[in-house]
């Protein structure tokens, strides 16, 4: 079941994000990897501008995906599924659900260039790699230059 997350879910979102983000260990540059991946105070700031939706199994939140409108586009933010629940279609169901909620014709997602599993997931769902990723990351995201160097942007047109 998909539901909108709220402030009462903060601890569970923190757990899911930081457990699932362990997949980046040894994949992304060591100067970009840290634990926790997202400290609690950063998650609080993210929750102020990103709308999170979660997937529940047996009344337990096991996956999440956020959306954030920035100007003329919507960004997919923080797609994470607990490792033991991965490869069951949860992220795909969340993505399809969120596509129906957005009010912009373009949906963008940024991810680590080394996260081949994430890139493959989005490409499987119709996203295309953007060649001007540095410009897009500077316009639509607020991330350090070093992260821009190590990231990619994918996009898809959405029927409104």
Which structural traits does this protein have?
160 residues; alpha+beta; Aminopeptidase; seven-stranded mixed sheet; 6 helices; 33% helix
Architecture overview:
The protein is α+β, with helices and mostly antiparallel strands and 160 residues long. It has a 7-stranded mixed sheet with strand order 1-2-3-4-5-7-6, sandwiched between helices. The longest helix has 11 residues.
Q: How would you summarize this macromolecular structure in one to three sentences?
A:
Helix 1 (10-20) packs across helix 2. The chain has 160 residues and is α+β, with helices and mostly antiparallel strands. The protein has six helices and seven strands.
Q: What is the fourth-level CATH superfamily?
A: Gcn5-related N-acetyltransferase (GNAT)
The CA-CA distance between the termini, in Å, is: 24 Å
Cα-atom Rg, whole angstroms? 15 Å
Low-confidence stretches: none
What fraction, in percent, of the residue positions are helical? 25-40%
Give the overall form.
globular
